[in-house]
Amino acid sequence: MLFPLWVRRLKRGVLFSAVRIAACSVRGNVTYTQGQSPEPRIREYFYYIDHQGQLFLDDTRVKNFITCFKDQHFLVFFFSRLCRNETGRYQDSFPFLSLCGRERNFVRCDDRPVVFTQILGAEEEERGGEVVSEAAELLSFCGGGKKLSVPFRPQCLFMQPKTGRLYHPSPERAGAVGLVRSALAIELSSCFEYAPGQAQTGQPTHFHWAGLRHRLTNELAVHFTLDPGAQPNE
C-alpha cells in the first residue's frame, strides 16, 4: 500500500484510514489511479469533501464518519494548503488542489471545499489583574479547530435563495465562500430576521447575535446565480 508523502511525514501515532491506493477509478469521463505518477518524481491523489466538511479519498465506496479522515494534524496540513487547481490537469472535475512537495492532491466537493462546522467563542485571559478578550469569535471549518478558522462576521452570512443553504466568507485561496454545515445552520436559523409579512419564506434582512442586530450585506450573492431576492441590501 502506497500512502501519500504527507501522511508518511506526519509524526507517529497519526491515524490514517486504511484504504486501497492502487485501484483505477473512473468518474464521468475522468480516469485516474490513486498514487499515479504522470511524470518522474510526481505523484497524484484524488479527494472528495462532502457537505458536512468530511474529507475522503475520492474512490472510497462508502463515505461516512467511519471512513473519513479524522486526525486533526492531517486535516490542518491538508486544508491549510488548499487552493484553486490551476495546473491544467483535472481542473473541471477536481477544481481544487492541496500540494505537498512533489505530490498533487486533487480535490472535488459536494458544494464548497470549506465547510464551517462550529463557532469558537472568544478566548479570555488575565492581564494585569483584568480579564480581557484575546480574539473575536471564530468559525472553524473541516475539523481543524482553531487552526482552521476565520473570524465570524455575522453580517456576512448569506442564505442562498434557491437551496436555502447558508454561507460565510472563507479564505480567498479556497474559493472565498464557505458552506455552513447544516447542523450549525439550523442552530443559527432562529437568529435571522425577515422583512414584515415574509416570515421565513423570503430572504432574511438581519441577523441577531451577541445582543446586536446586524444588517445582512449579502455580499456573497455575487458568487451565485442571483435571484431578485438575493440582491445585496441597500
Write the layout of secondary structure elements.
Elements: H1 5-9, E1 24-27, E2 30-33, E3 43-49, E4 55-57, H2 72-79, E5 82-84, E6 96-100, E7 103-109, E8 115-120, E9 124-127, E10 130-133, E11 138-141, E12 149-151, E13 158-159, E14 166-169, E15 177-180, H3 182-188, E16 192-194, E17 204-209, E18 212-215
Parallel strand pairs: 3-7, 8-15
Antiparallel strand pairs: 1-2, 3-4, 5-6, 6-7, 8-11, 9-10, 11-12, 13-14, 14-15, 16-17, 17-18
Entry keywords:
disordered C terminus; about 230 residues; single chain; elongated
Question: Can you give me a brief rundown of this structure?
Answer:
9% of the residues lie in helices and 33% in strands. It is built from 3 helices and 18 strands.
Radius of gyration: 20 Å
H/E element order:
HEEEEHEEEEEEEEEEEHEEE
| Overall pLDDT | 85
> Could you say which structural class the secondary elements and strand pairing correspond to?
mainly beta
If strands are numbered along the chain, what order do they take across the biggest sheet? 12-11-8-15-14-13
Number of domains: 2
- Our count of helices gives 3
Gross morphology: elongated
Cα distance spanning the termini: 57 Å
The residue ranges in which pLDDT falls below 50 over 5 or more consecutive positions are 9-21, 226-234
Specify the biggest β-sheet. Answer: 6 strands, mixed
Please provide the count of β strands. Answer: 18
* Range of strand content: 25-35%
Note the quaternary state here. Answer: single chain
| Approximate helicity band | under 10%
